[in-house]
Amino acid sequence: MTENVAQPIYDWEGFGFDTRQVHAGEYPDKNSGLRVPPIALSAGYLFDDFDDQVNRFNGSIHWRSDEHPGHGEPGGFSPSEHAPIYSRQGNPTNWVAEERLASLEGGTVSVAVASGQAAISAALFALAQQGEHIVSTGSIYGGTRILFGRSFKRFGIEFDYVWDADDDAEWERAIRPSTKAIYTETIPNPRNDITDLRRIAEVAARHNLPVVVDNTVGTPALIRPFEHGANIVVHSTTKFLTGHGAAVGGAVIDGGNFDWDAAERAGRSYPLITQSSRPGVPSMLDRFGRGAYARAVRESVVNDIGPTLSPLHGFLLHQGMETLSLRMERHVTSSLRVAAWLEQQPEVLSVDYAGLPSSPLHELAVRNYGADDAGRGRTGSVFGVTVRGGVDGARALVNGVRVFSRMTGIGDTRSMIIHPLTSTHGTFSPEINERLGITPGLLRLSVGLESADDLIRDLRSALDRVAAL
Ligand SMILES: Cc1ncc(COP(=O)(O)O)c(C=O)c1O
């Protein structure tokens, strides 16, 4: 291996979140001393000689973990990390983003991919195959529900939904012998109806199932699902992590805390992780221990299907994460101001923000997300508001804003507004939308980094149009 290939030289374990978001994953550039990890635009990599090529392809140079201990993970690096072959499997720019994100989430290894949808797909394809089954909580991002009901269905993987995550009987009815994972989100949108991850993790543990959590809206700055018993985290890095609305991306993070052997013994088989793929090659679990799942995602799913993150976007991602906690602080502070103010407006019927004392989820919000000085839970910056007048009221509000952008998307520096019933949830049946609380007057807000005073003024002048109906 050449000296210049990325080798993390710092052990950032034990350092604070703000330090790790700036430094984790960085590596020294011995050629030119560049301080900012550069954009490595190369589809392939030079092999030193014939044997180096052989060893990189069969992966043997990195099977033994102690030679190259990676970020907090006993499993060491896989061939595509730090002894790369081709950029579909890995790229030095993306490694920075991957290690930084693994460090922030407190996981072992992460895999960056081209979008949030790609992350969810890769995460679950590594666990389930045709004829198998996954249980999801009911309130999840609309695009994910469409992905599950369309593409996963066509591949023969079925989903059942649990609507009341506190209801053990509902879980027991949904989980089958062929179930391979439980899927949920930290802060679902549009209604900020947060989940009690610990309860879900307890149910999963009873059934030897890994819990996969989409932490796009929560972000590791507000909640780290592995601390609540989750096993795998996925992200649309398009949102808060990259942070500026410019680059689509995604990531899968391995918590390194799921006992694949115990699951296998209990009759739940995960062949990509626990079984050898060809004679003479040990299983991912034998080779990579606590990083085995992420290696299965990278080498057995992403490498096959090819949703690779461009290094340009990998750069924007690792740079975006440097300011994550600062941005999230402002996102949450402004959201709490806007949400509490909205509740007082005569044109507003309700505000769905779990952290507000008026929410039935307030106690859970404070427990899992901490409280501000006024005792309100810090549950992110994406939430719902329902105005008087149904669709007409919603239209008046959307048409009346200037600072808020009328667009789909969340987690940008810019504030955004959208009408879920006619957009993100437009293809769902009336029954599903009723269960999800997607009503004609509901709007989704994503509060950005503008001045909260300006956001409130903007909403007030738009609400005047609602009042005039
Ligand atoms: C919670 C959540 N997960 C996943 C996705 C999909 O991410 P992407 O648009 O990056 O594919 C989104 C997109 O809005 C999302 O909000």
UniProtKB/TrEMBL annotation:
<dbReference type="Pfam" id="PF01053">
    <property type="entry name" value="Cys_Met_Meta_PP"/>
</dbReference>
<dbReference type="InterPro" id="IPR015424">
    <property type="entry name" value="PyrdxlP-dep_Trfase"/>
</dbReference>
<dbReference type="InterPro" id="IPR000277">
    <property type="entry name" value="Cys/Met-Metab_PyrdxlP-dep_enz"/>
</dbReference>
<dbReference type="InterPro" id="IPR015421">
    <property type="entry name" value="PyrdxlP-dep_Trfase_major"/>
</dbReference>
<comment type="similarity">
    <text>Belongs to the trans-sulfuration enzymes family.</text>
</comment>
<feature type="region of interest" description="Disordered">
    <location>
        <begin position="65"/>
        <end position="84"/>
    </location>
</feature>
<protein>
    <submittedName>
        <fullName>O-acetylhomoserine aminocarboxypropyltransferase/cysteine synthase</fullName>
    </submittedName>
</protein>
<keyword id="KW-0663">Pyridoxal phosphate</keyword>
<keyword id="KW-0808">Transferase</keyword>
<dbReference type="InterPro" id="IPR015422">
    <property type="entry name" value="PyrdxlP-dep_Trfase_small"/>
</dbReference>
<dbReference type="InterPro" id="IPR006235">
    <property type="entry name" value="OAc-hSer/O-AcSer_sulfhydrylase"/>
</dbReference>
